[in-house]
Every structure is written in C-alpha cells, then in structure tokens.
Amino acid sequence: MTKHILLMDGPDGPGLIYHVTSVLFRHGLNIIRNDEYVSPDGRFFMRTEFEAGNTVDTPDGQLVLDELRHIVPPDVTLRLSPKAKKNIVVFVTKEHHCLGELLIRYGFDELDANILAVVSNYTTLQPLVSKFGIPFHYIAHENKTREEHEDAILRTLSIYQPDYLVLAKYMRVLTPGFVSHYNNRIVNIHHSFLPAFVGASPYRQAYERGVKIIGATAHFVNNDLDEGPIIAQNVQEVDHRHTASDMSTMGRDVEKIVLSQALKLVFNDRVFIHQNRTIIL
Amino acid sequence: MTKHILLMDGPDGPGLIYHVTSVLFRHGLNIIRNDEYVSPDGRFFMRTEFEAGNTVDTPDGQLVLDELRHIVPPDVTLRLSPKAKKNIVVFVTKEHHCLGELLIRYGFDELDANILAVVSNYTTLQPLVSKFGIPFHYIAHENKTREEHEDAILRTLSIYQPDYLVLAKYMRVLTPGFVSHYNNRIVNIHHSFLPAFVGASPYRQAYERGVKIIGATAHFVNNDLDEGPIIAQNVQEVDHRHTASDMSTMGRDVEKIVLSQALKLVFNDRVFIHQNRTIIL
Amino acid sequence: MTKHILLMDGPDGPGLIYHVTSVLFRHGLNIIRNDEYVSPDGRFFMRTEFEAGNTVDTPDGQLVLDELRHIVPPDVTLRLSPKAKKNIVVFVTKEHHCLGELLIRYGFDELDANILAVVSNYTTLQPLVSKFGIPFHYIAHENKTREEHEDAILRTLSIYQPDYLVLAKYMRVLTPGFVSHYNNRIVNIHHSFLPAFVGASPYRQAYERGVKIIGATAHFVNNDLDEGPIIAQNVQEVDHRHTASDMSTMGRDVEKIVLSQALKLVFNDRVFIHQNRTIIL
Amino acid sequence: MTKHILLMDGPDGPGLIYHVTSVLFRHGLNIIRNDEYVSPDGRFFMRTEFEAGNTVDTPDGQLVLDELRHIVPPDVTLRLSPKAKKNIVVFVTKEHHCLGELLIRYGFDELDANILAVVSNYTTLQPLVSKFGIPFHYIAHENKTREEHEDAILRTLSIYQPDYLVLAKYMRVLTPGFVSHYNNRIVNIHHSFLPAFVGASPYRQAYERGVKIIGATAHFVNNDLDEGPIIAQNVQEVDHRHTASDMSTMGRDVEKIVLSQALKLVFNDRVFIHQNRTIIL
User: Fold this and answer.
1) Among B30, B185, C1, D74, which residue carries the largest CB count within 10 Å?
2) Tens digits of residue pLDDT in C54-63
3) B276 CB neighbour count, 10 Å cutoff
4) Does domain D86-280 have CATH number 3.10.290.10?
5) Which residues of A are less than 8 Å from B28 in CB distance?
C-alpha cells in the first residue's frame, strides 16, 4: 500500500491534531505513525505517516492536502513528502571514509537517496567513485577566485538538479552566495563535537585542550561557519596517549556513522528546522 | 493550570486519535504533549497531556474520560493519571548506593514520589535512613520460611498501601504469591545487562566471561526471576584490569542512575506494558 | 602488606624504567602495577605500585626513594605517594547533587578522602551536611569585595590545611590570588562538555545552540576560567524536546558521576599534569 | 627507525620487567611503549615496543630475544612480533556491511593487514569484492556435508596460508576440526552483546526480550559457539518503536565498527589470551 507523509508546521492553535485526524478519518485513511511537537515559543510541528485502510484502494494524498488547506489557519505550512527518493550530489576533498560509507550504502540500496554525482576539488577519490559507476567531477580551486570556483560547481549542479548537497569532508568554506542556492539543503559533517572546536584542525585543537572525549557533528550549512542547525552528534572516548593524528583516525569512524544517521533522518523527512535548531520527529 | 494525563490502550482501530482530540477540542482543552504507538501486533497506546486553554478555568478530566468511554470501543482501556505523587516503599539489603540516591533525591523533592518507608532484611542501612526521618522496618529473614518472611513484609506494607515497591538492591527472590499482590508495581534494579548474567553474582559472571562492557537493568518484577519487562538499561566500559570486585564498584554508579531514570518514567505514567515489553511514551 | 606508590616525571632518557625496576628488584620488592608514558615532546611519566615480597617484611619506600635519587638524572622528580587518605574541603553554593553524592560515598568510606568541612556562600545545604556530622562554614559573599570574601575562606581553610579543594557546583569564580594557594589542588565540576559553553548558564547555551549531546567536565582550576587541565568528561544524549531546564536536570546525573570519577583518580595519585593536559596512569 | 614489538607471557616472578629493561638498556635500545599486566591468578603479560636510540643503527630484535631467553625462566614465552602486515582471508555470507568496511579500509591502506581473498558460501558479494580486485572464492555448502564443505575451504586456504581468518558475518558454524587449524586465529563478529543472545537471530531475540540497548561482539572463535574470548564490544540504544528488523539495520553500524576495532588490536599484536579472556595491552 502507498504510504504518505504529511508535514505540517505553524503557530500552535486549538485543534490542529484534531483537524488532521478528522480529515484522515473521514477518508478512511490509517495513521501509521504520528509525531508532533510544540516548541516553548509556541510553534507546532507534526509529521503524519498514513496509508489507505482496507476499504480504500489508494490514499489520495493531494486530496487530503487540499482539504486540510481549507481548514487549518493560513499561516500553517502543509507539505506532502514526495515519495521518490531524494537526489543528492556528494562533495569531497581527499578523505575517503565518509564517501566510502555512502557509496557502499548506496551500492546496496540502503541510503534512501540517489547519488547523482560526486564533486571534488582533488582527483584523489576518483578511483573509488569510478568503482561504483558514478560521475566524478573534478573542479579544481587552484587559480580560481572563490566565486569562480563556486560558479563552476553551480554549473555542474545545474545538470543534476539535486535535492540535497552532502559535504562528506569537503574542506572548503562555501560563500553565502553559494549557500543561498541550497538553503537548508546542504548537510555537512564537522569533525568535532560542535560548538567545541569550530573551524580548522579540530582534532589538533582537541589534543591541545586535552579533552577526554572527541566527537563529530552533522549539521545543515548556513552562512555562519559551523553554526548551522545540528542534526546528529556522537562521541568517542580518548585519553592522553592519543595524539592529534590518533584522534583524527578514531574520529573518522564517528564521522561517517553520524553523517549516515543524519542523512537517514533528512532523507526520510523527519527533520524540521526552527530558530537554528532541528526538531526530529 | 492543572495538567491531566490521559492513558489509553487497546486494539488499534480507525479514529482513536481523532476521537480523543475531538473531545478535547470541544471542551476547549489544549494538548500539551501527545504520544502514541501501535505495536506490530496491532495494539494502540496513547498518552495525552492536556490542560485548560485560556477560556476555561479547570479541565474536568473525569468529564473527558466519561465522554470518551461512550465513544471508543469497549475493549480500549482509558485511565486518568492520578495527579498526586506516587507512594512507594523501598526494599534494600546491605548496599547503600541506590538507597542513598533515592533518599537524596527525595530529600530535595526530585523523586516524583513519596518514600513512605524502607524495608530491609538487615539493619545495615538503618542509620542512613534515619538521617532522612523515614521509617525503617527491619524484617529479618533468618529462622523464617520464605512465606513467613513475606507475610511479615506484607503486614508492614498493609500499613502504607504503597503504589509501587522499589527493590533498590534487595537481594532476595520474591515468591509468585508475593509478586501477585503488586502486579507490574514492583521495580527492581538488576546489576547486569539483562538478559546476560541472570541470577546471582552477575559481576563475577561478567568477569569470568571476559566482557568489555558491563551494565545494569531496571525492570518490573514478575514471576520469572529477572525476566520481567525492561524499563531502562545502561552500560559502562571495562577492561581486563578490572576484577569482579572493581566491576561491582563501577557498576554501582550505573545501577543507581538507571534505577532513578526508570523510576522517573514509571512515576510520570510514561510506561505501558505489552507482551513482557515496555512501551515508553 | 603495605603498598607504596612511586611517582616519577622528568625529561625522557635511557634506562629510566630499568633504574626503578633494578632498585626494586635488589630490595626484593614486587611491582604490582607499573604504568608509564612518554609525551610527544619527550617527557617521561611513571607510576609504580610496589609492595614487599615474601622474604621482606616491610618495603621501605623512603630507602627506595633515596637510592633512586642518586641514580636518576637530577631533573627527574620522584615522589612517594603519602599513604594516608587525602584531606579535602568541599565548596558548594545551592545545588545539592554533587555534594550529596560525595557525602554518601564518604559516609560509607568510598571516597578515598576525608571531608574535613564544607564551605558555602549560602546556607541552603547546611541541613544536608549536618546529617553527616561534618562542619559547615557559611561564608556569605554579600557586602564583601571578592578579596574580602576569599580572605575569609582562606582563614577557614587554614584551620583544616586540606590537600585538595573540591568545587562541587560552587558558582563563584576564584581569583588568581586564591588559586595560587592551591595550585593544581582545586578540582571543579563544570556543567558542560568543555571547551563548549565556557562560563555561565551552559545548559541555556546548549539549548540555544541545539546540541544533541550535553556533558560535564571535571578539571583542575587555574587562573583562566574553565581552562584548567581536564581530568574526566562524560556525556548524555538530549533531543529537541528537552528545555534548558530539562538539560540541567539530566546533566546533574552526569556531573556528579564525572566529579566522583575524577576525584577517585586524583585521590589515588593517578593524575599527572603536563602542558595543561592530564596524563592518567 | 625500525620498531620491534616484544611479547612476553608466563608465570609472574621477581624481576621480569627489570630483566627486559636491562637487556634493552645495555643494547642502547629505547622503549617507546611498555605495557604489562599481572592477572589475579599470577600470570605476567608484557608488550614492549622498542627501537634503536641515536647511537645504534638497527635494533637487532633477534639478539635481544636470544639474550632474554637465557635470563627469564623457561616457562616464560617470548615472541617478537613479525614486522610484516598480517595476511588474512575474509569469510562472508550475504551481508555486505562488514566486508564493505574492510574493503574500503584495505583499499586505503588502513587495515594493518592484507586481504588475500574472500570466501563465501554465496555469490551475493562477488560484485563488491571484484571492485577491489581481490580473489573471491564461492564455495557452496549445498549438497555437501559440513566436513566436505570445510575441506573445500581448507584446500582454498592452503593456497593463501593466511595468518588470520576474519568471519565478517559468515553465517555458518565451524566444526572443532576446522577451528583447530586456526586456533586463536579466527575472529568473528557476533551481532549481539554476548553473552546475551547466543546463537541464531539475536536481534529477533533482543526484540522479544524488549531490551533497551543492543550490541555487537568481536571475539575469537573456539569450539563452543559464541563462547570464545571477547576482543571488543559496543552498544546502541533502541526503544519500543524499533522492530527486530530495525535493530538489525541499526546493529550493522555497530558490528562493522566493532569488528574493525578488534582487528586493529589483533593485527597490532595487542591481544593476549588467558583463560578465555583477552588481555589488551
């Protein structure tokens, strides 16, 4: 049976759950899973998975949506999650571990997304990508201004029209101009437990500060470096014997798993953004 | 404003969320938080926190309950969580760590429950309990059959009529006869990551098996030793240097925190039981 | 049998382990546990637990120390850990959880230290402390300059001559002048995963940043706020439903356990400090 | 500079550390890292990394070994770790995640071992293996007795003479006869937190028991199913919403990381075995 996901957010008000459930009830549609959240500042978020019951052949998601648009207040946003898999382009520099993880998952249909292409400012990872038959675009940044480099990337992206960009250890900062093309649609993995160790060489910073736990953070990219909404984090214990280089090696396992887990949430339409925080339903 | 918690469980069917939300909507009551779950075998569970909106002074929980009873199918159970704190009696033997944790929390009003009394088969912890001005009942098991001992305990409990019994490292097995008096109302902390190391001396067993992680499990007690529904678990890394005794020492920190976290869930009516598993909403 | 702990640190050089083990071997002393570490910048650290073998009645630690002083280079520091328990004074403000943890452990002889007294700038925790028969010194900071307040504290400390000060949620910043009296002998628990959220209201900061994991850090106090060498850290997962206040409540469990674990390391002479980092042997 | 690893184990006795350090000191060799452990039942284990100091060109490991053999008691085992990478053969059935992890690491020279070949009782993973240019041996078990099947495998292994076999989700039980050929040289990943859920379908068992944490265990294989010495374990939180199938999906991330971490320890000669427990130095 076809499953639909209804996504709703807006100012909280009386009867929002009731309105949705009454429309679904009237159409004989079954709620498989429903999650809602009201933020302390009074914003309502809801994610409803529903499907046809026994008596109805196909739930007409669009019909439900149209009907709800007449009932709920106009400032409440309603979306139906597109059923098709998300299309993504993956950005890398030289490190293979996050890309390798995504390729293996994609190769066995576990990614909940289609990798349309890989973009890199180095050729290091081209052999790995070619093993999986995915287009690899080498777009060097040398001898280019930042804007020229990003323009070249944007031209390449225009071929693919991806839903999301995944920065799988892409070691260049994107300009606000570039980011504005993919607002809340760029996911980055940062190799620290943000907001600790923003910026470059976080494992070096972690070593020098003498922390006992390192971590990784998957987040949306916005215009402030490493300041976008956090989607997932995880950590790993270290001790004084670990050099910055050891931490970097150990951190890779955390980075790739955190990135994968964050992408799973994003690609399944489970992530809302509100005031630079994620709400995960 | 007075808050109510509505608890509902029964066979899944069309419109259950809708029915509840429509009744609340009609009475002008606000849903603060709503969580539901449908098990793979088709049972529906819902926990709804609601309170009066601006236009209504007091939500009449009983009225809502009565109205819902006429709407939902008869095999759906509906309960209103009693607003008052739960009353508990704590059982201990000789170890102080879980009891100490509960007493400190209780002393600073963080337990979400009233400790009416402590029962023990030893006098070891009497001085600790007396610091907090709580009745301590020493009920020795020596020279008594198991039934005589439990009868003595039951007589003591009859004074207090507790809602829950908390076995905070009570090192005796309770008979089915005793357990039947407090069905799903006895919470135990077991000093292992169940179902590993059921029974006596779990840290000794863990040491001998050479595990790299130890744990603790808070669970409801039923008639099969260490087989009741699990409420919460947590773990702690160990290595070959740790003796069984070291593990026991380290494990205490896990035990007391897991027990506290499980009790918080239970005392806030967030735990449903279905087929020997807990559903935590 | 009496156990000794030999602590050694200095520039790395040939034969340091050999020298120690040869002296112990000649005296018929058994090494129970030996841990060493050489930092990347070439500093050697060693902690050696030893005791008499079967043929010798008492290991004369001082004799071993004197003999080693003639063998190892003069810039190598050698210390014998004093066998007696460390004496401590605990500082608190209004929060009870860390203090309660320390008192319960102390009351059951699990702290590896003697709590000589508790100092506070409020009277809130006096009733708790008095349950355990420990002197409580209320030293108000109102109507005093920071220096006057610290002078009053120093006068009180002069009675006790503690080995360590434990800041168990003491919510005032100490001046460099005060800290200099207890260099590397003040342990603080900070309610964040340092270096994230230095300073005041870390849970509020964590909430606003939208982190998915919170933490706590036990560290030595030096002249830079929250910048001293980190001894232990631990973390706790949170999600969007948790308010800053929820995080604060959940964080308490982490704080008290991390503080206890750090103190155990410090009181057992397992912590060396080098370049603002701890080496834990 | 060439690094050597000396491995030593035997009954504890006076001067063992001293003997090793004195021989190394006399030869002008530097100890880079030294770890030792004495088990409660009196067995001594030591792992010493050493290299030439400034005055000596190459440490002659064999010379050190020969000299030590004359000094230490005859029941003490001394080994020099072979410097070359370990050679391994990987066994799989149908699941790709552990194999994919090993291949990616191997492809980027991060495995500390050479994958000589992959053996499988299915062809499912042949395409993945062929991407990395490694021989894939499909050895079907159908229409063969267990002994015939294992004989066919042993014939294949005889070509490669691997140091270790890695069972990367190989879903068949090996006979004692087979295991005896690779005593303490077969590493398996079991998809549960052993000793919980021994045997088949551990995630199904975990779901039915209603655990709140699942895990994975890397262990040496001996003749008792899932009873060999544990090398590494890790865990992952789950809740009532997770089906056995969800747990299986989530568990894969834990499995592959735990297996990789265990192999790193084994391939770096950091794992000793004593009484069915691992000692990791």
Assistant:
1) B30
2) 555 566 788 8
3) 16
4) no
5) 14
